[in-house]
Design goal:
The protein is α+β, with helices and mostly antiparallel strands. It contains 7 helices and 3 strands; from the N terminus they run ααααααβββα.
């Protein structure tokens, strides 16, 4: 089954055009900034604002375009972090559905693999040790405050912690849309399991 993992609006299309227009080195710098600020650590507010202003100068586009660039890239990264799919499939989606240039796709894929591998390693079954099973799920809610060029935004997040038998928890942060998407995927899996169970009887 193919999941509709991302919705691309006309506004997002404009943001993607801006992404494709900047050179490789500048894009890598912007991507690094956006990725680090998806889950920002405690840091000086002025320092973050200064970093954003320097980044805007580096990109060299009008402020509305710059803000759209940051917003679009942040949205893409958040959506890719919600789904675990084959790298080749994600690569194809970024190229064909989002119409990102090949050099931009390659950089995003490398970052995605780097971030996804620890999660997959924690969830991977180790047959020599009898498996790594999910033993408990904890959750909490939090509000994340972000600031982009004097524009402050509050985002409500759900934090899920998957506790496994190997003692290494897996933490997942999701907004409302991402949580609903996860729920729909789990519901689909449950329906498939129910169907298989009915055939076994």
């Amino acid at each position: 089954m193919s999941f509709n993992w991302i919705k691309i609006t006309e506004r997002a299309r404009e943001g993607i055009k801006i992404i494709n227009s900047i050179n490789h080195d500048v894009f890598c710098t912007v991507l690094d900034y956006v990725h680090k600020n998806m889950s920002p650590e405690e840091e000086d507010h002025d320092e973050r604002e200064n970093a954003l202003e320097e980044l805007e100068k580096l990109v060299g586009v009008p402020r509305p375009d710059f803000l759209l660039l940051i917003k679009t890239l942040s949205y893409i990264l958040k959506r890719t972090s919600t789904f675990v799919i084959k790298p080749t499939k994600l690569q194809s989606e970024l190229r064909e559905k989002l119409k990102l240039n090949n050099d931009k796709v390659d950089v995003i894929i490398k970052l995605w693999i780097k971030n996804t591998k620890p999660i997959l390693d924690n969830l991977q079954i180790d047959t020599n040790k009898g498996g790594n099973d999910l033993c408990d799920i904890a959750w909490k809610l939090k509000v994340q405050i972000s600031s982009h060029c004097q524009q402050k935004e509050k985002t409500s997040l759900a934090v899920l912690q998957l506790r496994t038998t190997n003692g290494v928890p897996v933490d997942l942060e999701m907004n409302h849309e991402e949580l609903v998407s996860l729920y729909n995927q789990l519901e689909f899996i449950q329906n498939e399991l129910d169907l298989l169970r009915s055939k076994e009887r």
